[in-house]
Amino acid sequence: MKVSHVDTNSSEIPNAVKFLSDSSGLEGGKDVTNGKVNKKIVRTLTPTSEQLASLKLKEGKNTVIFTFSTAMLGKQQVDARIFLWRWDARIVISDVDGTITRSDLLGQVMPLVGMDWSQSGVAHLFSAIKENGYQLLFLSARAISQYFPLGRLFNIKQDGKALPDGPVVISPDGLFPSLFREVVRRAPHEFKIACLEDIKALFPADRNPFYAGFGNRDTDEFSYLKVGIPKGKIFIINPKGEIVVNRRVDTKSYLSLHALVHGMFPTMLSSEQEDFNSWNYWKLPPLAIDV
């Protein structure tokens, strides 16, 4: 798989940025009181297929650059990444706080004072999954303003292994709506399910791109079940760092799960039946079907 970066000296960048930053349309509305038609600009976070095609994306990771100017700060530049995956990609989803880090709160605070607060073995496990041909997607219902350590996520190093690259999908809502949803309503799954359903819709309707999911809350498990991930491929890490599958502790840590990685996540080129699917390994009861 090739990884490409947009050349910052290329003349194509202004057009690419313009297409993405000008993702807006006109929506007409008629004022019944005076008979006038008022037009308003509606901004969207989603570029059209034509706009994406104009960027000439390559398979893997692509870097795009947004430039803008303000009266106070002058010209500013923000980098972003667009991932182009094959139609038959198998995606492994991972929550961030409490799943990659050891706790929701301290996982954000400790890196600021130079302490590694990541789960032991997570970099080795996720790297092995990536090497077997799977794509990693990191998901959080928190707002971007809560993610001051976001850039440190891929700086995690464990015995020379770093987290594999992958898109980080976070809530586009502001700080207070995201906090209200997570802390007051305790419903972070609402964003996660909606987000994952949108991603799922990008793939052929007759296949589910989501292969497995890692999380640390019941709401994570609920989200993954809603998008079609089987129970045997949903891994919930509890406060002790143990891996729970179907409400049962079967492995003690990410390190233990790493020993099973080739059976649990067989290489994409392998056509053999999986040894660690829901029936063969986890012994989950079959679905009850009314006849």
Automatic annotation (TrEMBL):
Name of protein: Phosphatidate phosphatase PAH2
InterPro entries from the UniProt entry: HAD-like_sf (IPR036412), LIPIN (IPR026058), LNS2 (IPR013209), LNS2/PITP (IPR031315)
GO molecular function, one term: phosphatidate phosphatase activity
Location of the LNS2/PITP domain: 91-246
